[in-house]
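Let's do one together. I've listed all components of the complex below, 713 residues spread over three lines.
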Amino acid sequence: MDRFFTLMKREWMQHRIGWLVVMAVPTVLMLVLSLFDVRGLKVKIDGDATVVSELYQLPVALQTVGWTFATGLLTFVLACLAVLAQLPGLARRDVQDRSIEFWRSLPTSHVQSVGATVLMHLLVLPGLALMAGVLGAQLVALVAISSHLGLGAWLTQPWWMLLPVVLVMTARMLLGLLLAVAWLSPLLLLTMAASAWLKRWAVPVVVATLVVGVEWLDRQLPLAVVKPVLDRMATEALNALLATHSFKGMHFDSPEGVTAALPDLPALLLRDAAQVLGNTASPAFVVALLVGAAGFGLLVLHRMRAE
Amino acid sequence: MDPLIQAQGLRVRYGRKTALDDVSFSVPKGRVVGLLGHNGAGKTTLMKALVGLIEAEGRLNVLGLNPRRQRVQLLESLAYIPDVAILPGWATAAQLIELMSGLHPKFSAERARTLLRRTSVAVGDKVKNLSKGMVVQLHLALVAAIDAKLLVLDEPTLGLDVLSRKAFYEMLIDEWCDGERSVLISTHQVEEVEALLSDVLMLNEGKLVLAIPLADIEQRFTALGHDAAAADAMAAAHPLLRYRVQGGSAALFDGTPPPEVAALGQRLRPSLVDLFVALTRQPEINRTQGL
Amino acid sequence: MQTWDHQLPIYQQLADRLAARLLDGELTEGEPMPSVRALASRYLLNPLTVSRALQALDEDGLLETRRGLGIYVRPGARDRLRQAARERFLHNEWPALRDRLRRLGVTANDLKWEQ
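Okay, and this is what the predicted structure of the assembly comes out as:
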């Protein structure tokens, strides 16, 4: 276990600058945004855009939640983009700088080594980025609210209500991250494996395979296979991340209405969490995990084969 | 005392090419074993088999373990430097010490720092900013801080200047020759390393052509220095090799030549370099001579 | 780095060099010999070779082992060495040199021994 944590520590040591940037940039951007004179910044509440209001006239608690959501989301999106951009390179990273021979001369199993890399970059680092975003958002909210409405406005928020909301929002997103990665694991891990085995051809080959699958294979078979599978993975991942189930069809009359509904948000999110967790009790999820495991196995196999 | 390495009938094949062919030897503790051979002779293949990176047919026992099946356990007591240019460039010496502390149960961070102080590498230096010689010093300091019973080094002095090589050999003797641990070092710089070795394993095109303690070389091989007059007689006795030495010629025999031939010359020390030339073939020579 | 010639076994060459150091006074009688490890490091030799060299010196009566303390240079070692070197010179090298001097017609006066 000690060795596994050290392997994870290595990932942080090697990539921390990039990740610290990912964690900090959205907060900094939002800070800058918040300092601008935003008299004209209007915020739409609920999908019908029936309620429009000036940002700084909204109830303060709602502003905080808004900043938290916006900054957290931005950080999270940036983190996901960073992961997707890095994924193909990660599988080849040690081979390219030849340090693979050094790592392989140490008493760590191949499974541990690959596992630490995958765990850190697919789950832990994006998760940390999300939490950093939420924390940074509080700073942004403090600066934004204080500079426009005074520090007192920020201090006198209903913290007893806000804290659970922010915490549950964060927890829900972390769960969403975990489940999205699980549902998308076949695609993610097979792409990594392809990158290890096929190097630069990995991404083109994967894309080509998917296109051929959807455009040609599905037409040859009595029942289309590829597209439904891709659709299912995407749907489940998005549900896991955005809790779309629970927000469908919600309607509010005014910002005060939204604020009044805030205390119910934690319970709502928890129910939603239960629902997405329930979705994993399906054969599709098991198959996704198995295929993902196959991708992982291919990565381990690649590391085992000495050059 | 069980030998640290025991190999019996090792064979490694890559497709149609046989990289190692029926190699058998054993390495006791407290030895510095030179694994000599030209490029492509099988040195790296043998070392990879010893540390469990590749599969080999035959029987192989390293520190009482099966290298392939018990690789992780073996690497806890065996330190391996597969190449000198493989330390991760992004890391500092301090970071590497920290990582190895967590990854290697027998690594001592304190010892590593002490050893590092004797080199020109500072704890905060990044690997990518170090010269090749300094990287080797760092790598060796890290490895010497492991309480391992066996050290396997694959051409550790490749591309190093004379001073770095000397520093490397000094560290090797100071840190590793305590009579309990053994070192297996592969090289083709035979002349330089001869004096450090206690045993030699010589590979030629995958086959083990010599496996002998250095102290026994003089008992088995005879080198006779002679003048031009005795040249024909020497040649007629079928030496392994004929070569030039300071002040004349010499002939190298496996065993003792007939007494009348021996009387014609003066006994010299059969050097490892000459044995190496005699028993192994340069791949290029094979091709140009159409052999 | 040290170079070792092709004549004698390396351990013998080391023994000779250590004997020379002894003769020069670098190694003092009654003092401990440098450790095997120190010698191995200085001359870049395998410790087994160093041990063999020390064994050769011991067989020549130049060293003594003091129990619990280590290997020491035997008192009188210098004289023994000088004596052995003298004998070698007088028996092996001198006759050939003397013949050569005679052939060249060099006399005792020519040698200017007193200077």
